[in-house]
Model the fold of this input.
Amino acid sequence: MNNEIIPKQPTYYEEVQRKGYSRRDFVKFVSLMTAFIGLEQSAIGQVAKALETKPRMPVIWLHFQECTCCSESFIRSSHPIVADILLDKISLDYSETLMAASGTQAEAALKNTMTKYKGQYILCVEGSVPLGADGVYCMIGGKTSLQILHEVAEGAAAIIAWGSCASNGCVQSAKPNPTQATPIHKIITNKPIIKVPGCPPIGEVMAGVIVHYLTFGVIPELDRIGRPKAFYNKRVHDTCYRRPFYDAGLFVESFDDENAKKGYCLYKMGCKGPTTYNACAVTKWNGGTSFPIQAGHPCIGCSEENFWDNGRLYERGSSFAGFGIEADADKLGEVALGVTLGAVAVHAVATNFGKSKTIHEHQAEGNESEHELES
Amino acid sequence: MANKYLHIPRLRRVYVWEMPVRFYHWLNALVIVVLIITGFYISNPLGLLSHNDASHQYTMGWFRYLHFAAAYIFFFNFLFRLYWGFVGNKFANWKQFIPTSRRFFTEMWAVFKIDILMLKKNGKEQDHLSIGHNAMAGFIYFLTFIAFLVQCLTGFGLYAGMSSWWLPKLFAWVPAMFGGDILTRQIHHWSMWFFILFAVIHVYLVFYHDYVEGRGEISSMGGGFKFIEEEMFEKNAHQTPNPEKKVK
Done:
């Protein structure tokens, strides 16, 4: 973020005041955000200062092959300032879903931001880009989403890939992926990309990523897969309040059984918590109300790569393509074990015929030695 | 007196498996059994109906603890065996496992014909002598080493996230390479079946060789010795996958 180049823009704090929020509301928001992005208490001042002094950051939010659940999640994040200030009223220069303008006006707004804030703006992408059939599966204003993405990404300071579609392709890229839906990082390789996977991602997580960029001017620390560590460095399993039941070996065996009523671990119901990295069990959803496991439903691993192709939602073992719907690794293994045992048995029987002479010779030798000892 | 037994071949005692190799073998067998049993439990735990509070028991916790402890032993044991492939005797040498010569493949083919298909030559049963591993077995063990590697990589890769020690953390790139823990876990689970199938065939073939050849195949992993007919020893001593080095 370079302050000189974006003059006359109101700061976030000015906008907050203009919208009628009190200083107290603002500080509450700042504290909340600082905690969400995993900073220590002393950083609250830094975040507040950034929001007080830095001008608003232009944001272009593109929608491609998606269902808009990411936007829905974002505007429902727990603190109203998130939606009100960060997104809806201030930052968003272009967003097909949320902007008032349409048609040529909208296109003009996009163009305007792209030229005026070249190299400054944040590009948020929601949805995957279809590469199949020259991209005709997703076109806006006569351009394919691939063209639009290339054009807009050109002048972006950083790209945020919102949700699983943009991060890993999500449901559109599930086999056989008819539209060749492709996540953003496989198309744009010369810009910093922050992946915020989830279907949808948690609203607070989304806001936290923006606030972090705003405060420090650099993208947050990412893990090896490109997700912000502050939110994606722990397994849902390791932060789950039902974890003690897992360690104790107490599991729900079927939905609505006695164990389910007792709130036992949902591991055997196919919970993907042990292999899913997200903040669901910590931040929770809808203003900290609940999250799937708390509602008695196993985690489906929506923030993990290829989650639609990672096997059945309610079982931990994954099916094997080409071996029938019910064939998982263990069933296949059992069959292989049976075949192996059968082959071994056949070989054992055949040995007594195929090697009969050798075996008899050894036997005769052995017998003779035994008789010698007797005499 | 010796003349009386001339038609019975004299056997020469050959020290094949050194103490460290035997120790490695049995420790490996033990931890693999532990890893498979605990692994099965972890992947699909038994249904327990209990009136205890969660705080009163630690069933899954103990299974996981055993799995991780056995995994560490497995890992270091594996590393030790790799080391021994360079400093051990010729039967333990890495050349017994990795095909580096045309002879290796020739012998593999011979073993396949003699021990698997049990083909006869001119109506006569054939005998094949490999004092250490035969080339086929050596190559299969090479595949098991690859399976060991896969299990170490995926296992410690999955473990890296919950560990604070640098060693497992060295494997953190593995799940990232597979796009996450889900696929990594599945590869870990699938590969486990290789060990089960291997164990069945391995144990069977040991019995087979002992039964057909009578050279002490089974007990060799106990005391380290195999017993080779004098004339075979003279004639075929070089018939190991390591033709450059003759048995001294």
Q: What stands out?
A: Chain A touches chain B through 59 residues (CB under 8 Å). Chain A has two domains: 12-232, 329-374. The CA atoms of residues 83 and 245 of chain A lie 37 Å apart. Strands of chain A lie at 59-63, 92-95, 122-126, 129-130, 139-140, 143-144, 158-162, 181-182, 193-196.
